[in-house]
Amino acid sequence: MRAVKRMICFLLVFLMTAVMQPICFAQSGGPSMKFNADGDFVILHMTDWHCDYPLPAVHKQLVLESVAEAKPDLVVLGGDLSEAANEDQPAAIKEICELFVEARIPFLITFGNHDYMHGYSIDEMFAFYKEYGGEYFIGTDADPALFGCGTCYIPVYANDGSRVAYNIYCFDSGDSVEGKGYDSVHSDQIEWYKATAESLKTENGGNYVPSVVFQHIIVQEIYDKLFPTAKKYNLGIREYDAETYDLVPIPNLSNIRDGYIFEKPCPGYYNHGQLDAMSKNGDVRAIFCGHDHYNSFTVEIDGVDIVNTPSIKPHILLRKINWGSRIITLHEDGAYESRVLTACELAEKQDSQLVAVGGVSRVELLIVKLWKAFADFSLFFWKPATNFVY
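and the corresponding structure tokens:
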């Protein structure tokens, strides 16, 4: 009888170990993760919640169904989460954290500009996530002397644990530049990135470790790729760090690999050289951003994919084509792939409750499906047309 009990206990421990997310600690002393046996590591990027407190039913349901569909190894919260009153911020953050604690999924946050607006310092906000996320909140502040809070890296080890096969960088891109526009990743953070990349390179036998980056605000070079530089005449302009751009009605769609652009991107005003540094090293495969709620595009610039993840806050009707989150799959061989997981896609599943909680109606689902078909058909013609014009 004792032998049977011991066997049952052994099996229970084994099963619990198998289903737990693979969190371990890197040589640096910080959190790290590990590729699955199939050579994949799945990240769910959910950004720009802009939610009230208590958490609206549609937000909660979308998060739960997105997690169930993606089955992520890690959730990255892209910033601009709670819009609760200042006095409700701790409770609101606790409610958000509980979604991932109860699901036993590791998560972290890259702060957005709106996270700076709630009566608490960004360090205090970070402390709330650490407190309420417990062991599942794996974000760190690598160097408190750096600009902002939460800049860090998370190494992802090969399945056999022999090496760091991928690296995840997280940056706080700040709030705003007084009298100018939005903020951006600062010079000290870029220098930290360079030093970290070199350290990982040394540990990896002299080869840079493939990496992805998460931050809230998109890089400035997006305007160089999508809009022409303003000359003598323009159709309404936007200026960034001494460069002025024509805000033509339709950007150069030929430079968008996939996804949609429904609003003009809003990068930081000053360019501190982030993309240049990452392009030069060649280690960063993609920079994933939020901030611009209705965009879901991928644009390659100097060997780095600039990827916009849309907001999970419910969009107006036709923009529901972009309403959702992004599934990112890292491959142990250094490649990656990503796609937007839309709320409308989830709502059409048999067991979905998104219609029941009022997030979307059956009529809207039909309209959005027809609109998507039309948009995809139109892009087939618009991409070469805009490329010819520019």
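(Above: one complete record from the training split.) Residues 126 and 149 are 7 Å apart (CA to CA).
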